[in-house]
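Researcher: Next entry in the queue.
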Amino acid sequence: MNSTGVPTVSANCIDWFAPPPGAFKLNNDVAVRKGAAIRDDKGRVFVANSKPLAGVFNAEIGEFLAHREGLLLAKNHNLNVQIAEVDASYVASVLNSMDLF
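Model: Structure for this entry, 101 residues:
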C-alpha cells in the first residue's frame, strides 16, 4: 500500500505471492467475463466473483473494468486490500501513476 492508503498494483507474475501477514491481496482477470478474488496472507480465498463483460473492449479496458470490480468487491465486504495484481503491465503502470488524493 502506498503512503496515501491506495493498494499497490503490480503486473501479474507467474507465481502467486502472499501479502504481508494480516493483509489482503486482490487478483483480477478478464476474458469473456471479468473476475476477482481476494485472498489473505495464507492464500485462503475470502471472496470471489465472476460477471459477464457486456460490450466490446480492448484488453486494457477489460483489465481496468475487472480491477474496478475487484475493488468494489473488497469495499462491499469491508476488506482492506493492500496489494492488487493485474495481468497487464500497462494497466499496473497507469494505476500506480494516478494521483488519487
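Model: The mean pLDDT is 80.
Researcher: Noted, moving on.
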